[in-house]
Write a structure and sequence with these properties.
single chain, 135 residues, mainly beta, Immunoglobulin-like, three-stranded mixed β-sheet, 1 helix, 8 strands, 13% helix, globular
């Protein structure tokens, strides 16, 4: 019975490590590649949390909206950016997949100054310092 409990604990720890969005070089990402998922919360009045996330090419960022209405537009509509999340979104989530490497700055058109960045990469090197939870 003790072996079964130890094995179950090891499997749970491995699953938690694999589901993390921690970037390369950490104990949570032993494969060295960028994470393939990240979450950005727009649950307060003027802040995306985290403001900066990183995913690999083909990765998905899920934007979660709370009680305050927000939207997400990618600055200057860069090549390879996914479609914006238009409207006044509350109490819902929308996912966007990034198929092109690059730096994609986004903002909320309802709240000027509310900005963030998605860095999309194929490399295992860490993104620049100053990133949020997704780095």
């Amino acid at each position: 019975m003790r072996i079964i409990r130890l094995l179950a604990s090891a499997v749970a720890a491995f699953a938690a490590a694999c589901s993390s969005s921690t970037y390369a070089g950490s104990s949570n990402n032993p494969g060295g590649g960028p994470p393939m998922t990240a979450m950005v919360n727009a649950t307060s009045l003027n802040t995306f949390t985290p403001e900066n996330v990183a995913v690999g090419v083909g990765g998905t960022v899920t934007f979660t909206f709370g009680d305050v209405a927000h939207n997400v537009f990618f600055d200057n509509d860069p090549a390879g950016a996914p479609a914006p999340i238009t409207g006044a979104n509350t109490n819902m989530s929308q996912a966007r997949t990034f198929t092109t490497a690059g730096t994609f700055e986004f903002d909320c058109h309802i709240h000027p100054g509310m900005k963030g960045t998605v860095i999309v990469s194929n490399t295992s090197s860490a993104p620049p310092a100053g990133g949020g939870l997704g780095y």
